[in-house]
UniProtKB/TrEMBL annotation:
GO terms for molecular function: transmembrane transporter activity. PANTHER family: INTEGRAL MEMBRANE TRANSPORT PROTEIN-RELATED (PTHR23526), MAJOR FACILITATOR SUPERFAMILY (MFS) PROFILE DOMAIN-CONTAINING PROTEIN (PTHR23526:SF2). InterPro entries: MFS (IPR011701), MFS_trans_sf (IPR036259), Sugar_transport-like (IPR052528). Keywords: Membrane, Transmembrane, Transmembrane helix. This is MFS transporter. The chain crosses the membrane at residues 12-34, 54-73, 78-96, 102-119, 140-161, 167-187, 208-231, 243-261, 273-291, 297-318, 330-353, 359-378. The lineage of its organism: Bacteria, Pseudomonadati, Pseudomonadota, Gammaproteobacteria, Alteromonadales. It holds the Pfam family MFS_1.
């Protein structure tokens, strides 16, 4: 009989669940408050916010450097350090209400966020078997949405009913993230990894299709993150409450849909799942270009978010083709590849936006179309690997 007093049994899954909660809670709080804090407290202009977003993406572009840190830290320890940096960066944000203060705390937060996201992919693909990975990643995506939803709700209560100051909200969520990370460090032992990871940069020809699909994924992500939400505000006049409600609706949908997506990928395979995602995204981006109804635009935004949840299939495709010892090094390289577009698209497409908004989304549809064509080579590649 199991000891009834043993209420918490540490495991790789419990580590990933708690880490996901910390990441979702701290980053959601930072992101939800950013624009209002920047304008009201730090007197930001459009030029300042553009510079801040560029600075925020630099650690993502440099994610490949994670492999060098792994020369001195184990992946699990590095993940905990990253979550500490993320939490501390968020906790300190409210204490530095100035342009350079917000730049500094953002870079600190972003270093922790992007290193953790790199390690998160690496550890999950090592700890979960190929059979269980799609469903477990779907569950973690659902948990991420739950944590984000609770965070948004608490922030809404704090500013609507309690008239809370920014400094205390940032401190609350950043501090909670730090405490939870320290709890993880105290309760979770170092879990055994199946293969010793390379401590050098890995670029292999057999991963080329994965690299290219990752690049296109990053480019589409930027169009969604930067311009889809902006369309809601500029063209359809969504206010802060409406945008927040849209974010919350996305997370509510993901709570229920993400685990089912994981099961679906297990059932139909990566190629069919990505074919469905990329076909849907072509239609969604064309819809953004043509839409004239605020309600339809909001519906497209939710559907867009659901399709991006299907990117789990790209991770599990890599898991199936990768040599086990390559996973950590390749996770850093792929995260850098994913962020190449982040350096170029926001600024260059912002100029295109001034000329014709629809062209931005037609380009997004073209990117999704390229991914759709490339995804048709996945099953043949998997068969060659298996042979």
């Amino acid at each position: 009989m199991k000891n009834p007093t043993r209420l918490f049994v540490p495991s790789p899954m419990s580590f990933m669940v708690l880490a996901t909660i910390v990441m979702a809670m701290t980053f959601s709080a930072w992101n939800a408050l950013l624009n209002n804090f920047a304008i009201e407290q730090a007197a930001f202009t459009g030029a300042h916010i553009g510079m801040l977003q560029s600075l925020r993406e630099v650690p993502g572009f440099l994610a490949f450097t994670a492999v060098f840190v792994l020369l001195v830290l184990k992946e699990q320890t590095f993940a905990l350090v990253s979550l500490c940096l993320l939490s501390i960066g968020v906790a300190l944000t409210g204490f530095f209400p100035s342009v350079y203060g917000l730049y500094a705390t953002t870079v600190l937060m972003s270093i922790g966020f992007h290193y953790f996201e790199t390690l998160n992919q690496s550890l999950s693909l090592q700890w979960f078997s190929k059979e269980e990975a799609p469903e477990q990643l779907g569950r973690l995506l659902s948990i991420k949405s739950m944590a984000s939803l609770v965070t948004f709700g608490l922030i809404w209560v704090a500013f609507t009913w309690l008239a809370t100051d920014y400094v205390w909200v940032y401190l609350l969520f950043g501090g909670a993230g730090l405490v939870l990370t320290l709890f993880m460090a105290a309760t979770h032992p170092q879990f055994v990894q199946q293969a010793t990871q390379h401590k050098k940069l890995i670029l292999r020809k057999q991963y080329s299709l994965y690299y290219i699909l990752t690049f296109f994924s990053g480019a589409r992500r930027q169009i969604f993150m930067v311009f889809a939400g902006f369309l809601m505000v500029e063209k359809f006049g969504f206010d802060v409450a409406e945008i927040t409600a849209l974010y919350m609706l996305n997370h509510v949908v993901n709570i229920f849909v993400a685990p089912k997506i994981g099961k679906m990928i297990n059932r139909i395979g990566e190629q069919k799942a990505l074919t469905l995602e990329y076909s849907g995204l072509v239609l969604v981006f064309v819809g953004y270009a043509l839409v004239e109804s605020a309600q339809l635009a909001a519906a497209l935004y939710v559907v867009d978010h659901i399709f991006f949840a299907m990117a789990i299939a790209l991770k599990t495709y890599f898991q199936k083709i990768a040599q086990p010892e390559d996973i950590a090094a390749t996770a850093g390289v792929s995260f850098t590849i994913n962020h190449i577009a982040a350096v170029v698209i926001p600024a260059s497409f912002g100029v295109v936006w001034l000329y014709d908004q629809s062209l931005v989304f037609y380009f997004g549809a073209a990117l999704a179309g390229c991914s759709l064509l490339l995804s048709q080579f996945i099953t043949p590649h998997l068969k060659r690997v298996a042979a």
